[in-house]
Amino acid sequence: MRRIFLIGYMGSGKTTLGKAFAKAAGLEFIDLDWYIEERLHKTISKIFAEQGESGFREVERKLLHEAGDFEDVLIACGGGTPCFFDNMDYMNQAGDTVFLDVSPEVLFRRLKIAKTKRPLLAGKSDQELMAFIIGGLEKRLPFYSRARYCLSGERLESRSQIDESVRLLS
Ligand code: S3P
After folding, report:
1. Which residue's C-alpha comes closest to atom 10 of ligand 1?
2. Ligand 1 mean position to 94 CA, how many Å?
3. Model pLDDT for residues 139-157, shown as the tens digit of each residue
4. Residue 170 burial (CB < 10 Å; 0-12/13-18/19+)?
5. Continuous segment of H or E residues that includes residue 114
6. In this structure, which residue's CA is closest to atom 4 in ligand 1?
7. Cβ count near 16 (within 10 Å)
8. HSE, side-chain direction, 13 A CA sphere, residue 154
9. Domain residue ranges in the chain
């Protein structure tokens, strides 16, 4: 039985690499954000708007455990998942944790064009976005670094780069 938790900052490529790896390894793929949206019939932005971040984190914790009951699965977590409650302990005990490491510059490039769906980033100017990424990484790295494995997520822009990362993760 294999259970993998893929963690890392927003824009680190958890969904992209997670999907490709799960397919190659014959694992079920669960994106925790999508799972939450499906279970609650609401977008992440709506949950943040209605329940605030703390309400979202409660839901996220509960559904992390629910998704973590699956076997032979790869779960791509939200960027904040490892940093709340005892989620990191839980994941390390329930399966293998993999941290997808990406520099602030690359995260900025990716997030600049993909911030609308992410309530924590919506409406930020370029300067605010860069400061948010740097500050966020500083706070979150102590959690991310507790993962069992670490892999660079810098090069995930093309099919061949994704395939190469899948090979490294295997
Ligand atoms: C968040 C990351 C998002 C989502 C939510 C909060 C975060 O997931 O869970 O918007 O706190 O970093 P992605 O990392 O998949 O964007």
Report:
1. 118
2. 21
3. 999 999 999 999 999 999 9
4. exposed
5. none
6. 78
7. 18
8. 6
9. 3-169
Query: 0.95 exceeded by the pTM?
Result: yes
* Burial call 107-144: b when 16+ CB within 10 Å, e when fewer: bbebbeeebeebbbbeebeeeebbebbeebbeebeebb
Ligand 1 pocket check for 57: Cβ under 6 Å: no
C-beta 107 within 6 A of ligand 1: no
Give bridge partners of residue 100 from the DSSP assignment: 151
Question: Is residue 78 within 6 Å of ligand 1 at its C-beta?
Answer: yes
Does the structure's ipTM exceed the value 0.95?
yes
Nearest to 141 by CA among 109, 103, 91: 103
Tokens 């090979």 belong to which residue?
167
Measure the CA–CA gap between 2 and 21, rounded to whole angstroms: 13
The CATH class that applies to domain 3-169 reads alpha beta
Going from the Cα of 25 to the center of ligand 1, the distance in angstroms, rounded, reads 25
